[in-house]
């Protein structure tokens, strides 16, 4: 975004040379003997990685007997070589791809969840605009639906007038989503589906989206921090990130995995991994460290008997979060490296509504 590609290439070449010439097999670092120059003694190279204001920035120090170098290794936009997709989870969803639009099947809870998550997204986005069209309140807004599956959330957002890009790493999911939207000429124009990961479209969609939706997704990614960084990069300043996920508690393990998967069969076995669940506190910490201000965190409860969701003050199971990207975020001045004297130091920078379903199916 700020010359990141060029600097990343420079950093990789530099570190490659350094590893090949300076690194020994000692666990605590390396020592390099100088055979020329004014310094006749051993020169100690002590690499240290320290976080900058945001976690994606790094500073690397190299100290000799006379001077200190400080290299700013600036971030690059994530590419396909860095992925948050867990290949082991793709197999699970590939086997279920043909069942996305069975409202009484394994994805019934996601169909029902639209009664909460669609108004949640709509109402919070409408707070950012002065006027909106009746019947098409999200008209003019661009929304990225990450992990869209068969399009269960993309379609109602499209019916509300939004231009939606739905992405999913499972190619069969995208085929199902494209086939289903083809029956509605209006949705066919408003929704675009792609079989890809989030990292693959970061560069082309950087700061172009009014909203990013990651509903029931973050508990399946392999690298949550990278995933949130990518979500932030595609958002416009002032854009909104919407997440629904599962808290990491003993109760979520007992009900979300043992009961739901192994006993009741509400969701297929192996759908979730408890270690990947994330607490609201940890999620908020990651969001804030990436320039996203958390606006709302609300608990969600599912009744398997009635098949409906409702809002709750209790976030120990499922919850929804809404965060907004800062509009005044300062970025560092691009530079390949900065030279400092030995004594100079770097300073830190500073409710289930029966009418909802009727509206969504119009």
- Output the structural class: alpha/beta
Taking the sheet with the most strands, its summary is: 8 strands, mixed
Strand share of the residues? 15-25%
CATH fold node name of the domain at 87-325 = Rossmann fold
Which bin fits the share of residues in helices? Answer: 25-40%
Number of strands: 14
Assembly context of the chains: single chain
Mean pLDDT: 76
> What low-confidence regions span 5 or more consecutive residues with pLDDT below 50?
1-81, 329-352
User: Judging from the principal axes of the Cα atoms, what is the shape?
Assistant: globular
Largest beta sheet: strand ordering: 8-7-6-9-10-13-11-12
The CATH architecture of the domain at 87-325: 3-Layer(aba) Sandwich
Task: Give the count of helical stretches.
Answer: 11
Q: What is the CATH first-level class name of the domain at 87-325?
A: Alpha Beta
Rg over CA atoms, rounded to whole Å, is 24 Å
Gap between N and C termini: 40 Å
Order of helical and strand elements = HEEEEEHHEHEHHEHEHEHHEEEEH
Explain what the structure shows.
32% of the residues lie in helices and 23% in strands. It has a domain at 87-325: Vaccinia Virus protein VP39 (Rossmann fold, 3-Layer(aba) Sandwich), CATH 3.40.50. It is built from eleven helices and 14 strands. The strands form three sheets. The chain has an eight-stranded mixed beta sheet. The protein has helices spanning 4-22, 87-95, 108-126, 154-159, 171-181, 185-190, 202-205, 224-234, 250-263, 280-289, 354-360; strands at 30-32, 43-45, 49-51, 58-63, 68-73, 142-146, 163-168, 191-195, 209-215, 235-246, 292-303, 308-312, 318-325, 338-340. Helix 8 links the parallel strand 9 and strand 10 (235-246). With 362 residues, it is an alpha/beta fold. The longest helix has 19 residues, at 4-22. The radius of gyration is 24 Å and the shape is globular. It holds the Pfam family Methyltransf_23.
């Amino acid at each position: 975004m700020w010359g990141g590609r060029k600097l990343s290439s420079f950093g990789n070449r530099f570190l490659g040379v350094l590893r090949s010439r300076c690194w020994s097999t000692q666990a605590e670092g390396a020592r390099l003997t100088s055979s020329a120059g004014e310094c006749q003694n051993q020169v100690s190279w002590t690499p240290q990685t320290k976080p900058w204001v945001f976690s994606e920035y790094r500073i690397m120090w190299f100290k000799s007997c006379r001077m200190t170098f400080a290299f700013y290794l600036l971030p690059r936009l994530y590419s396909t070589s860095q992925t948050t997709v867990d290949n082991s989870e793709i197999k699970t969803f590939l086997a279920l791809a043909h069942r996305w639009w069975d409202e009484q099947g394994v994805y019934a809870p996601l169909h029902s969840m639209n009664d909460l998550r669609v108004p949640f997204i709509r109402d919070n986005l409408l707070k950012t605009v002065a006027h909106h069209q009746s019947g098409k309140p999200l008209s003019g807004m661009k929304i990225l639906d990450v992990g869209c599956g068969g399009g269960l959330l993309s379609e109602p957002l499209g019916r509300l007038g939004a231009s939606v890009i739905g992405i999913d790493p499972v190619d069969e999911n995208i085929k199902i989503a494209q086939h289903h939207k083809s029956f509605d000429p209006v949705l066919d124009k408003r929704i675009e589906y792609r079989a890809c990961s989030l990292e693959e479209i970061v560069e082309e969609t950087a700061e172009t989206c009014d909203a990013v939706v990651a509903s029931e997704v973050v508990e399946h990614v392999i690298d949550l921090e990278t995933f949130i960084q990518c979500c932030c990069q595609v958002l416009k300043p002032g854009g909104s990130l919407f997440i629904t996920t599962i808290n990491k508690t003993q109760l979520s393990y007992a009900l979300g995995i043992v009961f739901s998967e192994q006993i009741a069969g509400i969701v297929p076995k192996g759908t979730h991994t408890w270690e990947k669940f994330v607490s609201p506190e940890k999620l908020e910490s990651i969001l804030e460290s990436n320039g996203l201000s958390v606006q709302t965190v609300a608990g969600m409860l599912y009744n398997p008997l009635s098949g409906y969701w409702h809002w709750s003050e209790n976030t120990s199971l499922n919850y929804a979060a809404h965060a907004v990207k800062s509009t005044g975020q300062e970025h560092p001045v691009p530079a390949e490296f900065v030279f400092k004297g030995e004594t100079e130091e770097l300073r830190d920078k500073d409710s289930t509504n029966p009418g909802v379903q009727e509206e969504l199916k119009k």
